[in-house]
Structure formats: C-alpha cells, structure tokens
Amino acid sequence: MSATTSIVTRRRPVRRLTAVIVLYTVLGLLSLIIALPLIWMMITSFKTDSDAVQHPYSLPNPVSADAYLSFTSGQQPILRWLLNSFGAATIQTILILITASMGAYALARMDFAGKKIIFGLVVAMLMVPPVVFLLPNYLIVRELGWLDTMLAITIPGAAGSFGIFFLRQFFIGLPKEIEEAARIDGAGDVRIFVQIVLPLVKPALATLAVLSFLNNWNDFLWPVYVLLSPERMTLQPGLSMLQGAYREHFGIVMAGAAIASIPVLIIFAAAQRQIVDSVTGAAVKG
Questions:
Q1: Are the C-beta atoms of 47 and 60 separated by less than 8 Å?
Q2: Is the pLDDT of residue 6 over 60?
Q3: Other Cβ atoms within 10 Å of 215 Cβ, number
C-alpha cells in the first residue's frame, strides 16, 4: 500500500466524523429554534403577571403556579374546555376513519357506474377552501337544531375528501392476490375489508387519525360560530375568550396554551412510528 493511499484511508473516518458532527449540530439548532416558542410558553406560565410584563424573556422570579391553580380551583373553565375539545376531536376522528376507509376502499377496489366521476369530485373538493363551506354548514346545523351541541362540531367534518383520497392511494398499492385468495376461501367483501385490508394499512389509518384529531383540536373558526354557551366551548376559542377577559394575565393564557399542547404531544409521540411507516411506505410505492 502506497503512502498516498494510506493517508486517504486515514482521512475518510475523519471526514465522516466531521460530517456527522456538522449534521447533528444543524439538527440540534433547528430543533432548538422549533422548540423555543414552546419553552417560552412553559416559562411564562410559571410567572406572575408583573414578572411576565417586565421580564418577558427571563426565567420566572419568583416561580408561581397560580395560573395552574386557578384552573383546578374552578375560577376558569379550562378543564371543561379541554374535555369538550378532547371529546369532539376523538368522536370526529373515529367517524372520519370509518367514512374515509369505506369510501376509499370502494373507489380503489369496486367497480360501479360513475366511479371516475365521483373520484374526480373528491379530488376537486380538495381544491376548495374550507371556509367556503362555513355558511352552508352553519345553515344546515341550525335547521337541524344542533347549535351549541357536540353534534355541531363533530358531524359536519366527519366525511372529508382528504381522508378518502389519502387512503385510496394505500388501498391501490395493496396486492389484489390477497383479496382474491380470501374470496376463494369464502370470505365476503365486509370480512375482507375489516379483517384483511384494514390491518394492512394501519400506518395510513394512524396518520389519518392524528391529522384528523389535530385538525379538530386546533379548529377555531367553526366552534366560534356554532357554540354559544361558555361551558360548551372548546379549548381554542375558549383560550381566546380568556385572553380577551384577562388581557394582562399572561400566565393564565400561557398555562392554558401549555395544557392544550400536552394531548397533541402525547398523541404524536405515540403515533410517531406509524406516521413514519406510512410516509416511507408511500415513498416506496411512489
């Protein structure tokens, strides 16, 4: 082995180590930048009102948990709003998974008249801004007598074009031989769909569930229109009311925002692997 080859061989591990260090440094800085708003929110939630105004970018001095204690003492209906949001998001997510999976499977596997036209309409609906449906949905909910009820914030969004389009792509990628073998064994369409097809697309279902839950959880505009009573409010519009009523109580507002972020972080952490699997699976199929 020549001297030049030996030098090049020794330099390769050094270059790889340097590349790894640079990569992790950049990723660490990006993670810190992304987490800074969350960190600042948590720090502010433990400050007093005067400390939050006078020293917005410093550590709490003194540390105060009055904002969180006000929720448990019943002074603010944050916990009630939290339960309303969690219930509405959970119910709507379940309904979306049912309707989207059935619609997507029909468009992916079944043959019927007008199939291409229906799929074209589904794709076209993706191009329409959701705010366009605000007035029609409100009129329908009002005529049904659902204003200021849980039905108003769960049923209108229970069937969406995105979920159908999203799951259809995964159903198309499944080998048809599996379903044909099940039919030879005497399985019907319902059994094939429930026991064979759905388990094969669990990552996609988990991803759609997370996206649907977050969409309902973070929804602000629609609950403002259809929920009239403060005790029936969900968390996002409720926090805006809290901010309007307590303009100088930044600790209370930030504590409410911190509570609102906890379920989202837990759900994402629990479904992270499924989301990654669905993304990589879609990339391989594509």
A1: yes
A2: no
A3: 17
Sign (positive or negative) of CA dihedral 151, 153, 92, 127: positive
Q: Which stretches within the chain are classed as H helix?
A: 3-45, 49-54, 66-72, 78-109, 115-126, 134-144, 161-173, 176-184, 189-191, 198-200, 202-217, 221-226, 235-245, 250-285
Fold (CATH) for 76-285: MetI-like fold (1.10.3720)
- The pLDDT value recorded for residue 8 is 47
DSSP state of 59: -
- Can you give the residue ranges of every domain in the chain? 3-45, 76-285
Closest by alpha carbon to 258, among 40, 30, 57?
Answer: 40
The confidence score (pLDDT) of residue 184 equals 86
What value does the mean pLDDT take over residues 189-202?
89
Burial 156-191 (b: 16+ CB within 10 A, else e): bbbebbbbbbbbbebbebbeeeebeebeeeebeeee
The amino acid sitting at 23 is: L
Q: At which residue do the structure tokens 């009311």 appear?
A: 241
Separation CA 10–CA 19 (nearest Å): 15
